[in-house]
């Protein structure tokens, strides 16, 4: 995958044509090799790009326009179908190169396991990085049916790498009893069910810190995002997730990268999930990428 070539397919609205002038790089990770229920999130990145065409370029929430942020859409990383280990290695190498070139990486998934190699690469660049994890699921399993490379494991792996006390999870409403026990005893932070209110309480303690943010679209209630592989009822609204994104944007944390994962277009004929995801990406670009 060439870093300096414009993507030949559909790009996110108002993406710049020049990689070298871009502050941020938008890229896709079309992988769903380890999902435990419904596949299809590998098609998420392109549907989010296509849905972005319906967006306004201006955000009234942040009073910013996409022309104010230089970002490049690199397209999807060409991952080897079905090979999780090799796919994760390619993602790690890709993000390492982006960080070495001083770019802000903003990834589109794909299943949530794709976040694991990104955290590894970001940790290499920012050894004191904190993780903000917004999701319906705890993702704290050590393995799933004997498989350690699973979409159920990335946050547990992050805890083991950067330390549980540096991991902050929000919106969690699903997981094994053992996962919730681990959250209680390990020293990590877990807010169940809600996102915006507990996030507002935590952010002041992270002022000045390097933070990576991962958002699983299934943190939304299925009424707002049916197009995902493992939907969980009892979730938050699109409005609350927008509020959370803006809280981070207006805080004093240094966001050093982010991703939005688990959009599976096949399960949403209305396309409301991809439409919502594209708006979240717009707000992330405008709020988290600093010039």
TrEMBL record:
EC number(s) given by UniProt: 3.5.3.11
InterPro entries xrefs: Agmatinase-rel, Ureohydrolase, Ureohydrolase_dom_sf, Ureohydrolase_Mn_BS
Cofactor descriptive note: Binds 2 manganese ions per subunit.
One record GO biological process: spermidine biosynthetic process
Annotated Mn(2+) binding sites: 112, 135, 137, 139, 216, 218
Key words, A-Z: Hydrolase, Manganese, Metal-binding, Polyamine biosynthesis, Putrescine biosynthesis, Spermidine biosynthesis
Keyword set includes Signal: no
Record-annotated membrane-spanning stretches: none
Cofactor(s) the record lists: Mn(2+)
Signal peptide start-end: none
PROSITE patterns on file: ARGINASE_1 (PS01053), ARGINASE_2 (PS51409)
MF (Gene Ontology): agmatinase activity; metal ion binding
Reaction equation(s) it catalyzes: agmatine + H2O = urea + putrescine
Pathway: Amine and polyamine biosynthesis; putrescine biosynthesis via agmatine pathway; putrescine from agmatine: step 1/1
Origin superkingdom: Bacteria
Annotated function: Catalyzes the formation of putrescine from agmatine.
Annotated family: Belongs to the arginase family. Agmatinase subfamily.
Protein name: Agmatinase
The organism's taxonomic lineage, starting at the top: Bacteria, Bacillati, Bacillota, Bacilli, Bacillales
């Amino acid at each position: 995958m060439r870093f300096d070539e414009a993507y030949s397919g559909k790009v996110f609205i108002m993406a710049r044509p020049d990689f070298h002038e871009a502050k941020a790089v938008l890229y896709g990770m079309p992988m769903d090799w380890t999902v435990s229920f419904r596949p299809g999130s590998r098609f998420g990145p392109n549907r989010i790009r296509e849905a972005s065409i319906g967006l306004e370029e201006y955000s009234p929430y942040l009073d910013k326009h996409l022309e104010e942020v230089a970002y490049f859409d690199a397209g999807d990383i060409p991952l080897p179908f079905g090979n999780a280990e090799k796919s994760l290695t390619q993602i790690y190498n890709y993000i390492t190169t982006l960080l070495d070139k001083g770019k802000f990486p903003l990834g589109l998934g794909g299943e949530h396991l794709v976040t694991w190699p990104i955290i590894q690469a970001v940790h290499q660049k920012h050894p004191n990085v904190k993780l903000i994890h917004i999701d319906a699921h705890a993702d704290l399993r050590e393995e799933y049916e004997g498989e350690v490379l699973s979409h159920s494991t990335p946050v547990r792996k992050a805890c083991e790498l950067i330390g549980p006390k540096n991991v902050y999870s929000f919106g969690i409403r699903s997981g094994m009893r053992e996962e919730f026990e681990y959250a209680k005893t390990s020293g990590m932070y877990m807010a169940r069910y809600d996102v915006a209110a507990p996030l507002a309480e935590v952010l002041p303690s992270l002022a000045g810190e390097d933070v990576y943010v991962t958002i699983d679209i299934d943190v939304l209630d299925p009424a707002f995002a049916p197009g995902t592989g493992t939907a969980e009822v009892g979730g938050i609204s699109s409005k609350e997730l927008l509020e959370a994104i803006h809280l981070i944007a207006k805080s004093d944390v240094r966001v050093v990268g982010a991703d939005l994962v688990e959009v599976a277009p096949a399960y949403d004929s209305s396309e409301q999930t991809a439409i919502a995801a594209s708006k979240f990406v717009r707000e992330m670009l405008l709020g988290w990428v600093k010039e």
